[in-house]
Amino acid sequence: MKNDNFFEKVYQIVQRIPYGKITTYGAIANFLGTKKSARLVGYAMNSSHSIKNLPAHRVVNRNGLLTGKNHFASSNLMQELLESEGIKIENNKVVHFKDHLWIPS
DNA sequence: ACGGTGACGACAG
DNA sequence: TCTGTCGCCACCG
């Protein structure tokens, strides 16, 4: 798309997240060099509905909490996708979050 | 052109 | 430990 901007960078990184791995908004923001702008990453994801094959379910906040699940088609969709990849979810939070964490590099 | 908004994160109390 | 507040900055109306 015409997004040569911050948004596209975010999408590119999210698409690089390996299967069964997850990352955080802060990690993405940090990789982009704007660590304090994690909000922008989340905001970018808000427009991810325009992007297909975007594993947005692999992006959680720094606590491993599925803060974005409410933005999916179904509030339980995000959890199901993660569980289908071998990631356990408990009370909307990723279990062994750090063990599945993937940092863009 | 301007201000509100927000899938966050860090810090203060 | 937990809750509240502030900063951050691109996008949209």
Structure in a nutshell:
This protein has helices at 6-15, 25-31, 38-46, 77-84, 97-100, and strands at residues 23-24, 59-60, 89-90, 93-94. With 105 residues, the protein is mainly alpha-helical. It has one domain (6-100): Winged helix-like DNA-binding domain superfamily/Winged helix DNA-binding domain (Arc Repressor Mutant, subunit A), CATH 1.10.10.10.
Question: What would your notes on this structure say?
Answer:
- This protein is mainly alpha-helical and 105 residues long.
- It has a single domain, classed as Winged helix-like DNA-binding domain superfamily/Winged helix DNA-binding domain (Arc Repressor Mutant, subunit A, Orthogonal Bundle), CATH 1.10.10.10.
- The chain has five helices and four strands, in the order αβααβαββα.
- The protein has a two-stranded parallel sheet.
- The longest helix is centred in the N-terminal third of the chain and has 10 residues, at 6-15.
- It starts with 5 loop residues before the first helix and ends in a 5-residue tail after the last helix.
- The chain binds a DNA duplex (13 and 13 nucleotides) through residues 5-7, 24-26, 29, 34-48, 56, 59-62, 66-71.
- This is Cysteine methyltransferase.
- It holds the Pfam family DNA_binding_1.
- Residues 5-87 form the Methylated-DNA-[protein]-cysteine S-methyltransferase DNA binding domain.
- It comes from Apibacter adventoris.
List keywords for this structure.
single chain; 105 residues; mainly alpha; Arc Repressor Mutant, subunit A; two-stranded parallel sheet; two-stranded antiparallel ribbon; 5 helices; 4 strands; globular; DNA-binding
